[in-house]
Amino acid sequence: MKHYIKRGNNTKKETKKQLPKPITIIVNKVLPVIVLLVAGFYFIPYASMNFQNNDVDHINKNNEAIMFYSSTCSHCRKVYPKIFWHNVLNFNNAGNQIQTINVQNPNNKHYINEFAVQETPTFMKPNNPDMRVVSNDVQVINDFSER
């Protein structure tokens, strides 16, 4: 932006100090994208947990484990993002995914009685319902899933 400064009879052109062009590009174009990616990394799992229509019609026996959760449970809120990103990274490999079932969904209530889910988050092996763990410790969940 150019400003004209009048000094007596002489008029001089002065330019306002601007950031160098590469820095301007970074601030105006790259930084907003980075902010959106970081915000998405933190908020997408919570949006998935609270707003997805988690209407499960069957247990997938090919999955590594099943997670029964409640979207209002503080322990579930702690562990769900880790499970969400685990499933995203293993999108093409059902054998490494953890099926998530929201027990608050009215269509999923029958799983509470069917598998005797008493607290959340409960992790269960799909081929062996007696093998289960109730924990929000990621290391315990990883050990359980890998067995």
Structure description:
This protein is of the alpha+beta class. It has four helices and six strands, in the order ββαβαβαββα. The chain has helices at 21-51, 74-89, 110-114, 138-146; strands at residues 2-7, 10-15, 65-69, 98-102, 122-125, 128-134. It has a four-stranded mixed β-sheet with strand order 4-3-5-6, covered by helices on one side. A two-stranded antiparallel sheet has the order 1-2. Strand 1 and strand 2 (10-15) form a beta hairpin. Helix 1 crosses helix 2. It is elongated, with a radius of gyration of 26 Å. The protein starts with a strand and ends with a helix.
Summarize the topology.
Blueprint (H helix, E strand, L loop, with lengths): L1 E6 L2 E6 L5 H31 L13 E5 L4 H16 L8 E5 L7 H5 L7 E4 L2 E7 L3 H9 L1
Helix pairs in contact: 1-2
Number of strands: 6
State the distance separating the first and last CA atoms: 66 Å
Structural class: alpha+beta
Task: Please give the oligomerization state of what you see.
Answer: single chain
Strand order of the largest sheet: 4-3-5-6
How many DSSP H or I helices? Answer: 4
- Overall 3D shape: elongated
Largest sheet: 4 strands, mixed
The radius of gyration computed from the alpha-carbon positions, rounded to a whole number of angstroms, is: 26 Å
Mean pLDDT: 81
Helix content range of the residues, please?
40-55%
Uncertain segments are none
Pattern of helices and strands: EEHEHEHEEH
DSSP strand content = 15-25%
